[in-house]
């Protein structure tokens, strides 16, 4: 157990040395600028607008940070020889990959917690109403989307180069975000194509709408751990499948 925890800490420290919190400060600064401008415009639904902007910005920022961090941890480690150096100390490949992924997960959790802390302090400083529990839960659910993106990067990175891993994960994230839209109101006739039939079977499994809960909070729907549990369990299942496949390819393929 101790080597496993050491590898997790090593992955987290490697991201920490790369100034992992700099993107948070940049986005927080932009958010402060945008909210200041909006407050001067006198928008009536100011709190909800700020929430939507913060949620969307954190979502997109977190995805791109995950793509960069995930590809760095597995793809650059493979190309630079860092994997061989760690595996030479008798760490199994499976242990290395799982610990490295969990190190990424801890870093992403620190990312969202740090952003929420800055966001809450700024709102308090401006004497706005502190966001509800639903808003914080909507932010926290983004972490699971990032974990799926990270698992995609590790899956592609286990057998492909960095560019392929990043591009493949990015495309599948976009597909998950548009899954509900692409599968709604289409194919009601009897002349459905094979591609559409297959997609309608896959779409419910690759739908991120339950984890991207900002719209629900925006229209006033209640959000709780109980309501979010199905989406979270589905995300955990997808992550386990992707990491399991990544472990398989990483074990059976050449590191290079």
Structural category:
mainly alpha
**How many beta strands in the DSSP annotation?**
0
Anisotropy-based shape: globular
Q: So how many helices?
A: 11
Largest sheet: none
Distance between the termini: 28 Å
Number of domains: 1
Mean pLDDT rating: 79
Order of helices and strands: HHHHHHHHHHH
In helices, the fraction of residues equals: over 70%
Strand content: under 5%
| Stretches with pLDDT under 50, minimum 5 residues | none
- Provide the gyration radius in Å: 20 Å
Structural summary, described in words:
- By secondary structure, this protein is an all-alpha fold.
- The chain has one domain (2-252).
- It is 77% helix and 0% strand.
- The chain is built from 11 helices and no strands.
- It has helices at residues 2-17, 22-41, 46-80, 82-87, 93-125, 133-157, 162-177, 179-183, 194-202, 214-218, 225-252.
- α1 packs across α5 and α3 packs antiparallel against α5 (93-125).
- The longest helix has 35 residues, at 46-80.
């Amino acid at each position: 157990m101790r080597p496993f925890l050491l590898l997790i800490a090593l992955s987290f420290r490697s991201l920490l040395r790369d100034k992992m919190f700099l993107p948070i400060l940049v986005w927080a600064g932009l958010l402060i600028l945008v909210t200041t401008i909006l407050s001067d415009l006198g928008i009536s639904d100011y709190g909800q607008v700020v929430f939507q902007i913060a949620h969307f910005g954190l979502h997109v920022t977190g995805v791109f940070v995950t793509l960069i961090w995930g590809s760095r941890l597995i793809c650059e480690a493979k190309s630079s020889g860092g994997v061989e150096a760690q595996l030479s100390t008798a760490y199994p490949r499976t242990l290395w990959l799982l610990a490295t992924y969990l190190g990424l997960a801890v870093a992403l959790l620190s990312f969202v917690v740090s952003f929420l802390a800055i966001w809450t302090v700024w709102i308090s400083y401006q004497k706005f109403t502190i966001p509800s529990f639903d808003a914080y839960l909507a932010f926290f659910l983004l972490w699971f989307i990032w974990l799926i993106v990270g698992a995609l990067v590790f899956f592609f990175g286990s057998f492909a180069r960095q560019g392929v891993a990043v591009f493949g994960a990015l495309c599948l994230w976009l597909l998950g975000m548009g899954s509900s839209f692409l599968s709604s109101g289409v194919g009601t006739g009897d002349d459905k194509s094979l591609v559409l039939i297959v997609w309608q079977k896959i779409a419910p499994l690759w739908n991120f709408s339950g984890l991207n809960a900002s719209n629900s909070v925006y229209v006033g729907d209640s959000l709780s751990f109980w309501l979010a549990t199905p989406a979270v369990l589905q995300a955990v299942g997808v992550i386990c499948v992707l990491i399991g496949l990544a472990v398989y390819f990483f074990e059976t393929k050449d590191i290079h």
